[in-house]
Amino acid sequence: MTTQASTPTSPTPLTLALSKGRIFEETLPLLKSAGIEVNEDPEKSRKLILGTSRPDVRIIIVRASDVPTYVEYGAADMGIAGKDVLVEHAAAHPGALYQPIDLNIARCKLCVATRKDFDYEAAVKQGARLRVATKYVSAAREHFASKGVYVDLIKLYGSMELAPLIGLADAIVDLVSTGNTLKANDLVAVEDIMPISSRLIVNRAALKLRREGIEPIMEAFERASLATMA
Fold it and tell me: Measured between alpha carbons, how far is residue 90 from residues 84, 138, 187 in Å?
């Protein structure tokens, strides 16, 4: 009896987790520097898995806040996420991710903002207990604790600027880029918490098992990010 030779299965492509929007757009030049071009625009396609010009690399499109989870649990070998997202993830999963490179893209600041007529400095000096709305609960808690300011944190997922306007909170902690959204809602940034940029994150097991494929991409990303700072 003859037996049919089994066909070898092709290895799973290296998977990079990205979110739509600014991070995706600013990652494209970094990918190009590594010889990788994405085949489709996620803003025009409904696909969540995108091929690239290299058959051994694919992109998956996920929510920004989910990127670290996909990488930590090995569904993606690598990902790109903002420091704001990584701080929140690390609070619940310390040391879970390898973060080798600050890519210096999608830069902004995490700030405290209030209504223009709210005297933030006086409230802090007088030891008032502030109500603060944010989705960055861990970063906000650590910031105010370091200042010795008592706060009640209210977790919101969007429309943060509304909270001080209708009395839900005294202040918000949110990302600020141009400041136009704050200005449009009669709010003002009163304190910077930390600068934010996006970083490459890598699954620790994948770095050991798939180092040959991952390291050249990491090196190309690092060269490209340094070039943008020159």
Answer: 10, 9, 30
Is residue 116 located within the same domain as residue 216?
A: no
| Structural domain includes residue 68 | yes
User: In terms of residue numbers, what domain contains 121?
Assistant: 108-195
Residue 136 lies in a domain: yes
Q: Which residues contact 17 (CB under 8 A, 6 or more apart)?
A: 59, 60, 62, 66, 67, 70, 71, 75, 76, 78, 79, 80
- Structure token pair of residue 50: 């995108």
What's the number of domains the chain is made of?
Answer: 2
Question: Which pLDDT score, from 0 to 100, does residue 106 have?
Answer: 95
Q: How far is CA 224 from CA 15, 54, 90, 220, in A?
A: 20, 19, 26, 6
Q: Are residues 118 and 78 in the same domain?
A: no
Assign 10 a pLDDT band (cuts: 50, 70, 90): low
Predicted confidence (pLDDT) per residue in 40-83, tens digit: 999 899 999 999 999 999 999 999 999 999 999 999 999 999 99
User: Which tokens belong to 65?
Assistant: 């806040």
Collapse the DSSP code of 138 into the 3-class scheme (helix H, G, I; strand E, B; otherwise coil) and give the result.
Answer: helix
What count of other Cβ atoms lies within 10 Å of the Cβ of residue 105? Answer: 21
Same-domain pairing of 125 and 102:
no
